[in-house]
Amino acid sequence: MSIKRIGILTGGGDCPGLNPAIRAIVRKALSENISVVGVKNGWKGLIERNIVDLDLKSVSGILPKGGTILGTSRTNPYKKEGNAEKVKKNIRALKLEAFIAVGGDDTLGVAFKFYKEGIKIVGVPKTIDNDLSCTDFTFGFDTAVNIATEAIDRLHTTAESHHRIMVVEIMGRHAGWIATYAGIAGGADVILIPEVPVKMNDVCRMIKKRHERGKNFSIVVVAEGAKLEDYDLILKTKEKDSFGNVLLGGIGHVVGKELERQTGFETRVTVLGHIQRGGTPSAFDRVLATRFGVKAVELLLNGEFGKMVALKGNEIVGVPLEDVIGEIKSVDMKLYKIAKIFFG
Ligand code: F6P
User: 99: which of 189, 217, 262, 274 is 20 to 30 A away, CA to CA?
Assistant: First the structure.
């Protein structure tokens, strides 16, 4: 298919690997004589027609950089009357024959809506949370797991020295992938995730038992979206973003307080927060993002619109956006079962 000009944007929470993906899209497109327009700040940039031409120079040196040179936002153009029309009008005015949207469930959900309204669009999955369906991994996840694992390693030595319980709160809004991977890699004594609601009494009992068998420190990993029976979901604020997402955070402190109260062991809490999203991407994420970016351009060239690039085994394939949207990929319970062997 002959395409001469495309647009790209990055939407939703940033993550390590976005710049390698942008670079791969631009390099592959230019090698096919396709010019690339970068849209700034996610869907917001298409509403406001805030754009930048991307050439070889613009993507030079960005491979190891975290974040996104295009900027991002959590803007839902379908939220406010008239904005979706503005997006379509601007795509036409900018003469963008096809479009690549790099994002998570929210951004790709919007991409799918535009596809159904006639825009030639392809999606690229990204999120540190690794909770997008139809792909084995998203880029950003591996880097976040490495950061969280290093944090757990560091917490181990201070926990051991002070004979304390260390609670570490890890990101993961709907799914506990980072918590589970980093918890296994870092040797956590308990891992709490949204997929497996628990009673605080049971967690405390487990830690007490561990101390009874002679251990005088513990590491408790808590995903920010973990569910405690007898507690409401713990939120940072009551406000929601334009996709209806709540802002999580604070569960670590609730867990820490209750652990100290019930076990009597001194407890400290660390909230890793956005440290998990910042900084240079791991080699794995750079390679995955590069493969995704190249494949996205190939899908456009093949006329395979309405698809998302995905990792299946070791192959990069195209999957229908329709199958991806609205269905969160939860933690594999076979993996969580392995983690549980090491609890307590
Ligand atoms: O979706 C990625 C993520 O980092 C979640 O793990 C977290 O809940 C959320 O984004 C935080 O959002 P914000 O950057 O808007 O605070």
Answer: 274
